[in-house]
Amino acid sequence: MVVEARENGAAAVAVAGGGKGAAKLTVKRREPELVAPAGATPTGEKYYLSNLDQNIAVIVQTMYCYKAAAAPEAAGGGDAVSVLRDALARVLVQYYPLAGRLTISEEMKLAVELTGEGVVFVEADAGCDLADVGDLDTPDPAALGQLVYSVPGAKNILEMPPMTAQVTRFKCGGFALGLAMNHCMFDGMGAMEFVNSWAETARGAAELTVPPFIDRNVLRARDPPVISFPHHEFEEIPDVSDTAALYGGQELQYRSFCFDPDRLERVRGLALADGALGGRCSTFVALSGLVWSARTRALGLAPEQRTKLLFAVDGRRRFEPELPRGYFGNGIVLTNALATAGDLLSSPPSHAAGLVQDAVRMVTDEYMRSAVDYFEATRARPSLASTLLITTWSRLAFQDADFGWGAPAMSGPVTLPEKEVILFLAHGKERKSINVLLGLPATAMDAFQELMDAI
To answer: Is Cytoplasm set as a keyword in this record (predicted)?
Structure first.
């Protein structure tokens, strides 16, 4: 099991094309404090994390920006810091594992020590207006990272709390909520349910719309483990193209590429053009196949280079029986597709899309339980060598995070957790467009830009 703090290039370098005006951002933080649950919670025991939680123990940083407005009546007219702090204490009574600390269990797996000590909470002030942050279409880790609190000096995830929260006030009266949450605590759906529950609590709700289902034992491995699939998602692929030298020698750039409904339909039309898919292809399948092939070409991979595509499939309704409503944990399973660079780039778009389509269909109850059992038997972690990992946030309801100041004016990621990750984000008021967000070495990004401009 890997418990290293992974400070990869994606989080450490200057970014071209970041939020407009974000360079003006200067933030003064006050001393961090601990927000403990407002009521009694279980302590003195270890909280079980499933094998699906073990696979993705990385820190995910997100932020929500709110314009100036009157505080909600339910909050007694308090300012954003006090409202969010008090509501956090109350919601932690039900989400009490977040108030604990990561540890290693007797099984030598990640678990949570239920200490009840609380979430690290930081109050901060920015020396500019919220408008100076610009948009969040392309993250700017150097600037926006000031809006999220990271524990200084932490050498591995065991030294990092499961979650930190920072509330930053701006001169205009607006504020930003920056969150750093360990993915082992929940996937995107679970994280949004938590944030929305926190927001409901801030607005004075007596009960949560979706209370958390805490017990993760429903995803325990079978005894003995039954591995019924090959699980190439864990496979280590040799970097025969020496992309490590490319990433090591150039600045990593972030860009986002917007696909509106018309452009998405063109991408889908390319995948369906030769009839190989039988007239059936989702937008996700077509877009994933396109960016997999385009990134492969942009990186200049050797024809014999094997390349892997990973993406998460929400298993909540695919498990038999379905996971309980409000399941507090990772209900996602990684599926995979493999191809050589030469095979991808010499074939029509339908080929890559077909590989993605097959990977989606592979995710059944038995496949997911086989993945759980595979980790139990091997303790292997999905390898990102020569890999593209697509994460889809386009269905996550960021706009529902209303703490009493209305929907966030902006929300999104502060950085990508790994250089191999591409995010699909919903875009526009009707959320029908998709922003494709990625980071690449400078020359590869220019090549990727040319390929996208041709669509």
So the answer is: no
